[in-house]
Each structure stands twice: as C-alpha cells, then as structure tokens.
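Priority: medium. Attachment 1 of 2:
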C-alpha cells in the first residue's frame, strides 16, 4: 500500500540527514502519486539547502505546470532561490 506521507518522511530524511539528493529524487520519481505539495516542497527545499538553486527553481516550475498550488513553505523556498539566482546573475553580468 502506498502512503504519500511516509514517502514525504523518506524525502525529508534523505534531504536533512543523509543529504543525498540522488536517492531523494529517486524516491520522489518512483512515487505513484505526486499530488502532495509537501513532497514537492521537501525536494525543492533539499535542492535549495544544498545550493542547487537552478534545480530548485526548475522543479518549482514543473510543480506549477502540474497544476499544484504552492504552500507558504514552498513559496519561501522559491523566493529565496530566485533571490539567490538574481544575486549570482548580478555578479556574473
């Protein structure tokens, strides 16, 4: 039986404790139903925490294309990543 909340717990554990985004993404990709925004937020946050702003923003955009409504936590992560991206753009341009 599939429990999306258990999968989200696995995502959070991989991101916070193990810091293994390859395994985290594999768990996410293998979830049969990815309609819980908290699961998307966990993965986006993982990319953000490990300095992978571009991947975080791309995944956020995919989430929006999937017609999922971001939560406040998701929005904070996305806003932080956009600010990071803009700061990098200013320093390279």
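Attachment 2 of 2:
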């Amino acid at each position: 039986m599939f429990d999306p909340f258990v999968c989200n717990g696995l995502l959070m554990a991989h991101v916070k404790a193990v810091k293994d985004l390859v395994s985290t993404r594999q768990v996410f990709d293998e979830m049969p139903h990815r309609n819980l925004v908290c699961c998307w937020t966990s993965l986006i946050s993982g990319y953000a925490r490990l300095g992978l702003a571009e991947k975080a923003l791309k995944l956020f955009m995919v989430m929006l294309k999937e017609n999922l409504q971001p939560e406040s936590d998701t929005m904070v992560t996305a806003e932080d990543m956009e600010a990071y991206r803009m700061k990098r753009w200013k320093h390279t341009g």
